Amino acid sequence: MDLTVLWFCIVGFLFVGYFVLDGFDFGVGMSLPFLGRDDTDRRVLINTIGPVWDLNETWVIVAGASLFAAFPEWYATLFSGFYLPLLLILLALILRGVSFEYRHQRPEKAWKKRFDRMIVIGSAVPAFLWGVAFANIVAGVPLDANHDYIGTFFGLLNPYALLGGATTLLLFFTHGVVFVSLKTDGDIRSRARRLATRSGALTIVVAAAFLAWTSVAYGTLASVLLSLVAAVVLIASFVANLRGREGLAFGLMAATIGVAVLSLFFALFPDVMPASNDAANSLTIENASSSQYTLTIMSWVALIFLPLILGYQAWTYWIFRKRITRAAIPAEGAH
């Protein structure tokens, strides 16, 4: 396999991992107003992702670093043209991380309420803007001959991109609520299952509309087939949740997000940043990539470290696999 194609696949894999793993983190954060009836409930919700949220978030750092090293032209165009939305994502992630760490530092209800609100905002903003960003990448944006973005911020907020943002927002929300039902017990578990049913039905409608639009306007045969697979798996996850099969529902939701992201990368290939104004200005895997020597060195590094990262991630989830209950939350000092 050509190294440029290999690294396009690796970058796609890293973003799949990020959206699957940090996706349910976003969903749990957004679920606080819906499932957190009191402070103990909210602490249960936060504790479901407490041991893993920061590890999940490192996937975007690795994905960004790989993008920078393997496709520097793509990185430069993306991060300069999409500067404001990516900055908003970064600020939201910082806001969320700070809130997780500082929420429990003082006992006042007003203090915790402010940080709970920031967790919701810090989860919803990236969940929405990642969909907006990737929809624009697939659809193409205006680029000049130097591959610089020549559009505006509001040009990124077109109907297709907004639908993409709504799709990722709902997918991640439902993914997170299903994760809550898998990781908790008692009343909060039952309420999470009911909420996943309601949000899942809306997610199916919105995601189907976005995948259909993508397939008709920008799809290839491979991306269309993957979109159909994602739709079927999403419906299967909804049915599994209805039947109380939380583990299966969560696994199928993860598969839905993974296959949907893959369908976007297949719709994009061999471009990495299509130019909507002039195809000659488009960035492809060939004119955006690093040298063969750089890609060779990176391939050896990935061969050594990717299995280690995956192994450590699997071990972490195995260690923290038990359900969390209200009774397990101490009266003071927990978060």
Automatic annotation (TrEMBL):
Any matching Pfam family: Cyt_bd_oxida_II
Main location: membrane
Organism name: Herbiconiux daphne
Keywords tagged on the record: Cell membrane, Electron transport, Heme, Iron, Membrane, Metal-binding, Transmembrane, Transmembrane helix, Transport
The protein's name: Cytochrome d ubiquinol oxidase subunit II
Taxonomic path: Bacteria, Bacillati, Actinomycetota, Actinomycetes, Micrococcales
Gene: cydB
Keyword Transmembrane: yes
Family: Belongs to the cytochrome ubiquinol oxidase subunit 2 family.
Ranges annotated as spanning the membrane: 5-21, 74-98, 119-140, 160-183, 195-214, 220-240, 247-269, 297-320
Top-level lineage group: Bacteria
